[in-house]
Design goal:
Chain lengths: 562, 562
């Protein structure tokens, strides 16, 4: 008889326990009809990942367990769920087996508490891995996400335990296992795929049996999950589910060529020694998934944004259009006296190509009215005050449209300008979500090229692609009046933020010391803005927000000396 | 010879290593002139607490150690500082002894990772307490903050280790210690003082020698530290430094009556069995310290706020005035057609009594201009859009003033309305800091009464104190049109947020089930606003921000079923 394990690549909604339970049952039943012996869900699928401070409510944890227990499915399930605290300890991040009878199988041992992860805040670490015996006719080692990562050395620090090695030792002692499974909520970032594949290969090689990883897909809050559930064999072969799609991956552990995918997209087969290759449009899909997921889960159908004719808002409009459909997107051009002639035409061209609603609301009168009203105040003070008024009037108009129509405004800023504070709080930073907030400026250009290649007509015209970036808040203003050219700025930021290089190390790579110092000082001084930025889908190794929180009080202190 | 230990109650600035080092040397030298044998600093005093993600930079940690090593003082010092990682581990939260020669004494064992604390994210836990031998002629047990709390049972979960018990066991084995010291950065909240005193008494009793705790004072970011460094003797006597003041507390461990305080304010002596009593104005001092500390440390001299004539903005003006001086505060009244007659007069009365600059800028024309411009949009949509325009125009004006004058705008909202989303993003929520953001509405009234009692003339007039709260964004609007009366709302929120009571438990206390459900649903649905709120000084057991982060994607899911 074939030994077939289904990996349920689910897109749960954080907090929607009933819907998540139904989703698992539905995917499991579909897998059953294709011959699966049993099905494995993703980590914390009942609560959705990340449940954040909902985990502090025991009422919530009890409701998760009850929802997991109430799932009925035609094949046995391994279900990821929060589990109640033992005594005066924290709850567990665990797995229940449900084949009519419900049993606790394992609690996660390794609790990531770095970057976007805060698991030591919510969970107690357990001391041993789990086994599901004669479960759907199979014996399985059972691990949860990070539990498999220590073994491959892919954690920022060493944990004391290595659950993969523990299971391998049991196997050496004679415990018979058909496979080891891993319930994951392994967030996406642009360089993560090959690491995750290496983790799986490393586990399978040590265990000397197949290692199967079911990964969450979709977005919850600022976290993205690419799916790509996979199976690895000891010889290094990999079978991988498609990214950004919900579905079930059926793995015949005896024959990797017989894998099936129930859902959109296609299975990848990766030969031993080969690296997995991300799709060209992975970043584009990630950003679109982030926005569409957030809207769907927060009950938002419509999006509105300011369309300036610049590259950021044009790309944001493309993302919005792909996320919720062009019929649900409104772009508003809000020219002022400082807007260039081409701005309106460029904005209109993008809106027309996408087929989104396009409104033009000139802020010229309102701006004049406001500057007259505030003439005394503006005459003597910093001229940035006057520039910001324009950005904030635009924010006000976009928000009025959003509030009137129950739409969500999106902020169009990118990571490079957010890093430097080159943006206006309550102006262009206004919105419920910042789809490009974790993309460096040059990545925004890359996305623009991709949208233009993939869409007909191309939504972003030549003028928008090629004109020098400008906030257009003052005559002849250009971003590079104040900032280094973006290719340089992006690289300095990337080296410091993603790879944690210090100033001296960045300079050693050939960057001008004064430029590096200016960039890092501005980065430190503008943390107060980032504390108030809307959530942005995390696509880089290290995003602002959960994974980057500098002290505010240090804004003029640390970095002063560089 | 007297055995005198100085506790240096310092107010460090996060990231300002050089200034923090100088501060310790200055306080230590002052203590030396009064006969102290040695001085004990607060936890992480070199970096300031909380250093947050600066701790991820090894360059920063190395600079802290160097700054600690470079301190020269006329008496031996125990200095709290981050310490470099050992191998592939995280850094330590530790203590260096510096008496010319520098040695590592201890690394913190118990790393709080709950509420406002995230120490497991930054530090590796060590396995044993430290001893400083023949240091300034004394032998001392040395612990860091949380290390002392497990022993008294005052941690939310149990740690495996109990450092106080470990030291006590050493004493029982014959190790001779004169006292045990604790370097703390123990944040303020309204009910914490008696707990901290109990922790100290419990440690002294077990150790059978004096237990001395040096606590940070002042604000860094959203955390407040009340100081109140203290010494406890085995019989329960307590000597305590004043709150909210920098200084040095000199403890003669052989004679509690000979304690000296170098600084403003006075020492408290608390008899065995007596509870410490907070000053009446503790909450007022806390909120003022938060704002003044933030301004001082972020290099901000001036504050601007909207003055509506309502209670929140009146109290915020009092806080601002106390924090940076009335000469540095500007209040702007921005009446619209919906403003009541008394609003302007009430606002002016508060400004005049405080002696702050007062501007009146009517938004009536601008509002009319905006509503005309957006007439189509506003005619058909949700009427809240029109109401928000007024709030956002006010936000724009306050921000223009702030930007022009390099002042900081403050948001005037309170915790009750932030909890319910009864506030406007980019409108009244605009600002760099929300001084009342962790105060329930009824606490804002309490503060108003206190300011009126303490100041002459009383700054908040009868009309402001007694009129029904209203956002004045629509004709005859009142907060209680949409919200329960504040005494009820506050209590439901407090029970749920501070004490983690679930809906059913709150109802069991006599609250209406529908009211409770409405309040908790609004709380869940408005998390997206709180993700973008300015930092607020944490005065309650549980504040929004670091200690309260609900998932956004759950806004319509969990709680729907209540």
């Amino acid at each position: 008889m074939a030994r077939i394990i289904a990996l349920l690549q689910a897109d749960p909604t954080v907090g929607d326990l009933e819907a998540n339970a139904t989703l698992i049952a539905t995917l499991g039943d579909a897998a059953a009809t294709k011959g699966a012996n049993l099905a494995v869900s993703t980590e914390l699928v009942v609560s959705g990942y990340p449940p954040r401070d909902l985990l502090l409510q025991s009422e919530f944890i009890d409701a998760c367990v009850k929802a997991a227990e109430n799932i009925t499915c035609s094949i046995p399930l391994l279900i990821g769920t929060p589990l109640p605290a033992k005594g005066r300890n924290l709850p567990g991040n665990g797995v229940l087996s449900n084949n009519g009878e419900v049993r606790e199988v394992v609690r996660k041992q390794l609790l990531p508490t770095y970057d976007v992860f805060d698991e030591a805040r919510y969970f107690a670490a357990d001391a041993r891995p789990g086994i599901a015996r004669t479960f759907g006719g199979l014996n399985l080692g059972v691990t949860v996400c990070e539990d498999a990562w220590q073994h491959a050395g892919h954690t920022p620090i060493d944990y004391d335990a290595d659950p993969i090695e523990q299971i391998a030792e049991w196997v050496r002692q004679g415990v018979e296992l058909d496979a080891t499974v891993n319930l994951s909520a392994s967030p996406f970032h642009v360089e993560k795929l090959s690491t995750r594949v290496e983790v799986a290969r490393c586990a399978a090689k040590t265990l000397q049996h197949p290692f199967l990883l079911a990964n969450q897909v979709g977005a919850n809050d600022d976290l993205l999950f690419d799916g790509r559930s996979l199976a690895a064999w000891p010889d290094g072969r990999i079978v991988m589910a498609p990214a950004w799609q919900e579905g079930a991956l059926l793995i015949d552990i005896d024959d990797y060529s017989r894998a099936q995918w129930l859902g959109k997209g296609e299975i990848s087969h990766i030969s031993p020694g080969d690296d997995p290759i991300s799709a060209d449009d992975d970043l584009l899909q990630a950003v679109v998934s982030g926005l569409s997921g957030y809207c769907a889960k927060a009950g938002l159908k419509k999006i509105v944004l300011g369309l300036s004719g610049g590259i950021d808002s044009a790309v944001a409009a493309c993302v919005a259009s792909a996320a919720v459909g062009p019929e649900n997107v409104t772009g508003i051009a809000m020219p002022s006296k400082h807007s260039s002639d081409h701005s309106l035409a460029d904005a209109q061209a993008t809106a027309a190509a996408l087929g989104i609603e396009f409104l033009t609301i000139s802020i010229e009168d309102l701006h004049e009215n406001a500057t007259t009203l505030l003439a005394d105040l503006l005459a003597s003070g910093d001229k940035v005050a006057g520039e910001n008024i324009q950005a904030r009037l635009r924010g006000l108009i976009v928000m009025a449209h959003a509030n009137a129509n129950h739409a969500m405004a999106i902020a169009t800023g990118n990571k490079s300008e957010l890093a430097q504070g080159y943006c206006t709080l309550y102006g262009d930073m206004a919105g419920g979500y910042a789809p490009l907030g974790d993309l460096y400026k040059m990545e925004v250009y890359d996305l623009a090229k991709q949208f233009n290649q993939r869409m007909n007509p191309p939504p972003i015209n030549h003028s928008t692609m090629t004109k020098p970036p400008s906030a257009e808040l003052a005559p002849d203003q250009r971003d590079d009046d104040k900032l280094p050219p973006y290719p340089i700025l992006d690289e300095i930021l990337r080296l410091h933020i993603e790879y944690r290089l210090e100033a001296s190390e960045i300079v050693a790579k050939g960057f001008d010391a004064n430029v590096v110092a200016d960039v890092l000082v501005r980065l430190a001084q503008n943390e107060h803005k980032r504390w108030q930025m809307p959530p942005a889908p995390r696509v880089s190794r290290r995003a602002f927000g959960q994974g980057w929180r500098q002290p505010l009080a240090a804004k003029h202190a640390w970095r002063r000396s560089i």
